[in-house]
Amino acid sequence: MKDLKTTNLLLFIIVITLILFLMKTLSFIFIPLVLAMFIALLFLPLMRWFAKRKLPKTLAIISVLLIIAGVFKVGSELIQLSSNEILGSQSSFFEKAETKIVDLVVMMENALGIERHENTSVLKHYFKGSSVTGKIVPSLDFLGNLVSRTLMTLFFAILLLAGSINVEKLLNSAVFKLKHASVKTFRKIEKDIITFVKVKFVISFFTGVGFSLACVFFDVSFPIFWGLLAFLLNFIQMIGSIVSIILLSVFALVEIDAMSTLLFFVITISGVQVVFGSVLEPIFMGKTFSINVITILVMLMFWGYIWGIPGLILSIPITVIIKIILDQFPKYHVISSLMSGDSDA
User: Fold this and answer.
1) At what angle do helices 239-255 and 259-273 cross, to 10 degrees?
2) Which of 130, 311, 332, 338 is the S-S candidate for 307 at Cβ 3.0 to 4.6 Å?
């Protein structure tokens, strides 16, 4: 029996390793599939509402696609607005930015003892190996991957909404044996994911507005761009808020000459993140997502390694689903309690 347990454990480790390898290798399929699953979860209540009113499923799916298209339209308009804001700025800003960057590089060179030829400019010295072609090709590859993943996500979302891929039945056959348990768990997953997206969207929206208003008040350029960036980065739990503060603080260093004003600006945007991200978000979330900080950090690193930036964004919703499923099995209560940080674990 002892040898059998050891064999089963080794087989389990091999299977898990193989699954993780496949998830990383086939990320171009798994990322759109998981994104589509979350999109379908968001619109399933609306699909059931349409079904109660005897609306044909085809028209219901078209209505959902129109809503998604409207969201994309609003997003593209915001991106275009922020792009016009940057392109329409005065050239004096870029000259000032270049001067500030050169001064910072020279100061760091003096501190680290780095020698550079006097007649060689900073930009040519540190970017002499870069070429325009080398920057354009990766950008085109990124755009191509983005378009293909977006189309795959929409395709999978249509299949899920149409019922071609029934996640509820999959839970029933693969995880649970009782239909009541699978339905109950699926509805809880649906409810919690919708709550998570709603709260995260509202918090991210007001965080972006706060960043934009701070830029306007302290006369920092491109307030729409920085608000939009803060909104998007805030969907990456913990890491996104830190990155947005650092990026905007470094940018403000170029425009704000007085160090005291710069300090107040950094305190302001940090306060916006603390109020919305650390105070209001946990209050609105309540005990629905009682996941401790260690679990969040581990899952961020794990899914970030597996799927990159999409993994960072999807890590918390995936963790929520895993915890909900583990809660349904008493023998895994210890693991779910450790994930939530309960003292009775």
Assistant:
1) 160
2) 311
Residues 6+ apart with CB under 8 A from 106: 122
The rounded distance, in Å, linking the Cα atoms of 339 and 345 is: 10
Surface-to-core class of residue 133, CB atoms within 10 Å of its CB (0-12 exposed, 13-18 middle, 19+ buried): exposed
Q: How does pLDDT run across 107-122, given as a tens digit for each residue?
A: 776 776 666 655 555 5
Lookup: tokens for 74: 């609003």
CA distances from 179 to 38, 189, 328, 337 (A): 22, 15, 13, 25
Long-range pairs, 318-326, Cβ under 8 A, ≥24 = 318/34, 319/291, 319/295, 320/189, 320/192, 320/193, 320/196, 320/289, 320/291, 321/189, 321/193, 323/291, 324/185, 324/188, 324/189, 324/192, 325/175, 325/185
Residues 6+ apart with CB under 8 A from 238: 293, 296, 297, 300
**Structural domain boundaries in the chain:** 26-96+133-165
Over the stretch 21-71, which tens digit does the pLDDT of each residue have? 888 888 888 899 889 888 888 888 888 888 888 888 889 889 988 998 998
